[in-house]
Automatic annotation (TrEMBL):
Originating species: Littorina saxatilis
Domain BEACH-type PH residues, every copy: 259-384
Official protein name in the record: WD repeat and FYVE domain-containing protein 3
Skewed-composition ranges (Low complexity): 222-232, 1002-1012, 1177-1202
Domain of life of the source: Eukaryota
Amino acid sequence: MGSGVLRLASRKPKRDLPIKASPVSNVHMSDFMMWTSCHVDLVKEVVAFQYDQFMQSHKHMERYLLEEWQSVEKELLRERSLWGPTAGSRLQRWMLDMTEGPGRMRKKMTKNEMFYIHYPYRPDLEDNPLRYKVAISFDSKEYYENFRPQGILCHEAAPIQHTSDVDLLSSDADQTPSSPEDIINMRKLLPRSTSNKSAGDEEEGEDSSMLDGGAQSGEGSGAEAAGEGNSENPGDMQQEEPAPPSSKSDNQTIMRILGDKEKISHMFRCARIQGLDTAEGLLLFGREHFYIIDGFTLLRTKEIKDIDSLPYEIHDPIIPKSSMGSVGPVKRLFSKFAYDDIREVHKRRYLLQPIAIEVFSGDGRNHLLAFPRKIRNKVFAKFLSVATAITDNAQTSVSGQRQNAKVESGGGLISSLIGEKSVTQRWERGEINNFQYLMHLNTLAGRSYNDLMQYPVFPWIIADYDSPELDFSQPSTFRDLTKPMGAQTPDRLKQFQKRYNEWDDPQGETPPYHYGTHYSSAMIVASYLVRMEPFTSHFLKLQGGHFDLADRMFHSVRENWMSASKHNMADIKELIPEFFYLPDFLLNKNNFDLGCKQSGTQLDDVILPPWAKGDPREFIRLHRQALESDYVSAHLHEWIDLIFGYKQRGPPAVEALNVFHYLFYEGNVDIYSIQDPLKKNATIGFINNFGQIAKQLFKKPHPPKRLSARLLETLPMSAATGIAADQRLFFHHVDNLKPSMQPIKELKTAVGHIIHTDRYVLAVEQNKVLIPSSYGRYLAWGFADLSLRLGFYESEKAIAIFEGLDNGEILCASCPHDKMFVTGGTSCVVRVWEYSAKDRRACLKQPLYGHTEPVTCLTTSPAYNVIVTGSRDRTCIIWDMCRLIYVHQLRGHVAPVAAVCVNELTGDIATCAGTYLHLWTINGEAIASINTATGRNQQILCVAMSQFMEWDAQNVILTGSSDGVVRMWSVEYVQVAEEKETPAASVFESGTTNQSDNKAPSASSSTTTQSLLKRRLSRHESCDSYASEERSAVEHLKDFKDPEFLAVRESELGSSGEQDSPLSQRMKIQEAAEREGRGGVSEYRSGNISTTSSLSDLCGAEDPTWETGSVKSNTASVDTGMDALAVLGEGSPAELESRNKGGNKQGSSQSEPCLSGVSNQSDGGDVRSLSHNGVQAAESAGASAEKSSLGSSGSEHTASSGVVTVPSTKFAEDITAKYRPLGKNTLREGFRWQRQLMFRSKLTMHTAFERKDNKEPAAVTAIAISRDHKTVYVGDGRGRIFNWTVTDQPGRVAADHWMKDEGVESCPVCNVRFNFAERRHHCRNCGKVFCSKCSHYETEIRRLRILKPVRVCQSCYNILRAQQAADALAQAGGRG
């Protein structure tokens, strides 16, 4: 109580607050109104600013939604999509995909959606003489006439443009490029550097001082970090300006691209360079990725701005704009790379300035980025700090050596001890081929695909463009690699020497030079690739928007060589890498109007030399083969000295006649020191048009390749392949493979996947696949719970189980690497999964829609970044594994696709459906196809391809079938009759056939109509079925010469050689007459017929028929040659008969049963052979004996030529003169070359059902090839794995065609029973088992590459000796 009273008493009274006067009472009304108005204005401005921001955000959202809808609409309307067409249009255009494959080759094509926007239909110019002012495609009109806008919200504009003459003339007047002479003669245009340091050294020193002031790490996300986290050099930012409301939308765009969780630590302005295009944008470094975004820049206020929204006077571009115009709108790109995918980062020069960096990714993508001055080294250091998987392996590096290795190493002690080798040493030792070495040198010299001004340079190799066949053993076939192109001919060389010796510059600024033009420039590269986008656009930029005069365009390889080596003083150009791997640039697939030459020739596809057989693929293959030949390998170092070596500069260059204008060399040009914009543009134009000398890599003479050891060997060198004959590749010895007598590995069930590593052979059952790159784990599917499982290979213990990944059953899967796997199954959807080993989780990366029935097989190609899937809908689809988008479809299969394979070296794709084998390019173009059926019930179950020396024509495709046979096929060129368009329709337009009717009937047991029909359909079947026929040569001639045999509805699904023929009607009419003219039907077995067009190739030797130990011969009709000539149009059989009265007699012998198949001799007559090659004839007969001895019901297609002989009469001489061998590669009159898949050989031991000595035959379910390509591994349905290897002793060890000893108890000839005293002896030719008496004959077997006499049976001895005699006579006749 007391305390409460005390507090009450001590409380102080409250003070009275003074009354304040109202401010209104002290402020004048006018002031009050003014301030009120100001406040209202401020509020209005804030509201207006917020409204502008809202409208910008609204527009941004509209644009974002529109882009999203466009992508969805595009996916819904594309080919093989939900609402899209089932087949693509032939008017669809493609452009080169910049993604690199093996050896830095760019082969893939991507869809060109801007083609008809860049080249619209111009109706006003159809008959206008000024149409040459504009680039035109002949297909633009047809595309416009059939154009139907497909967009629902995004309406497409019609691809048409009306252009008047005034527009053309005004645009031409605007293009006033400076003359090269004017540029060169500009006084003091490019001051020389007086410092001893190069420009690169100066830039290194300036940049190194700025590395300490690096950018700080950002704490915010998206645009926040862009504004706060980076304090770059002022030169890396734009000029300061107030931030408009649109900056927020720009930031939103960046944030949407990056994602919500991304944090940006560093940001740099950059310019992405692609060809002649430069797209300025931003380089952003995030937490786990870096991004390249076109179309944005960074201001001094650290704000992101869209470049298109900036005024021209404010935006200072990184790369000065040149005078070249743009062909059309440039599409903005956005690229995202994971730090783990960065493989290499290299410093580069651009416009002769050290301002660029080239970044290489593991998936084949790469970017050339230019930066503001003195920023390049900071960015380079940042890349090295964030990249966690930079390649330091010589085998996988784009430069071919370790990062710190020197190209021109002195062979130091430390390097020798640790085994470090430079790329030059690897080439010397033969570890890499010539093409790879040249690509590595170009990379080390700073030459890039991304910069047309510094494009990789390759040498001219061949000097012979007139011969039908190249002879790589003759030095005259090749150009002189010791001299530059200007010194190839003496007359032109004298003029260049005269220019150098008489040079006099009154100003004393330009030193003397030999050549005022360059061997590589943007114009040269674009002119080579002008028929293919995007290089057409680049060429048009250089030409002012139109093509060059037709007489100056690249039209003929031969004319181009003559111009560069002899005729044109201003032309000394070399080649580009595409001449050695890309056939597409030689074809005018875009159907451009390239003009007409003064001679009246309309320019279209590039004219190829005769040895190319009219096929760009063959030209590329032979050109590459020439590059890898021994002659080029022995002299290539001399050309390297000229381009990259010590003869590039100084006195050695003068002596080698290799001095160019001084502006071509680095260090002589500094575009940033030129203030005059006209001079700066002129300088850039000069660099674009005239090129740049490559960086000098060698100061001393380049060492030659070590070939002496190989050349001194006794075995002959294969000049065609550049590989020693003793290398023993299995596809060079397909008839000489030694099988293992026992399985090398056995599994529980059918073999599904075989992998050969450096040390082991790994294999798993079906429904399993091994995971690269260690192959220590496997992926399995096909379980009852529809799960997918990961397990260890050794223990088979599951480490992860994934359930519910697919809506249906998984039927196939593939693993390109350990972080991704692809599945397909009954849901018809291909799903790409991303696997995290840390979390053991699989996340769906992208579903791929396109198939309409279950996906039955799929494969992935890490080298080319593609996924190929096959389905029961009888189609295959190629998907881009990097972008996860649809690319192509492969149509034309007659059955569900059972197996697919991608060649990791060439990119070719093999697909198998039923009994058909199809071969395609990486871009979905058909190469060839064949029916492998043999009359038995068989299906192809697996396929593999040899992947070694892609230029070797003997590379094979191996197919494993349900009949237990492994067959090998190669692509060969055969001659077929030229087609003439006739109004007559096919006889069997609506006919259909049953697979069971594929067997051709005997000629004596069927009517004319049935015979003709079934022979026409026989083009769909395997050549094995021909062995069961007994028909004359004229009938075989019809089979192979009349491509109308499959004129039924399924003709498009058959062989690539099936096309209309003008011979079909004549053959039908003459059918009865030909049968009567033969004078009887003869039994004819042709198991080794090649589908060539020559008469001799269509008439093979007969097979001996074994019956109860005796040999019986089947004599061929002698009149087959006349019948064949009648079919070829040389006259009727009656007329030919009158020309050869009494000249035919048949002969046969029981002791020499096979001679009638080799030669038919008349009394006192000599033998004339029409065979191209005697060795091939020997192969034919030998293979026939082998296959008949094994009891096969049929034999296979081979590339061998049969032998046809004619009696000794004037008619025989006429035929011999007319059809005298013209050489294997000489095209006959009235024929054309065509690619076909030809049978090479087969493997039958252990697994083939056709062999009675195989106790446990089984279907072949898996095939693999060893890395050194010396061994073939075959897995069967019983879980066994056998191998076939090339033997060192052909003819001395067991071969595949040998019968097993345990299956034979007595000699088939004399019936002597085998015992301890009477040993078994194999005939090395046919493989049958005989006693010692019946197999004491010895002879060579050239077909099997047995050059020493070996033991053969009597029948084979007669065959081989007769063939040797026929070969000798043919050679003598050829010399005569």
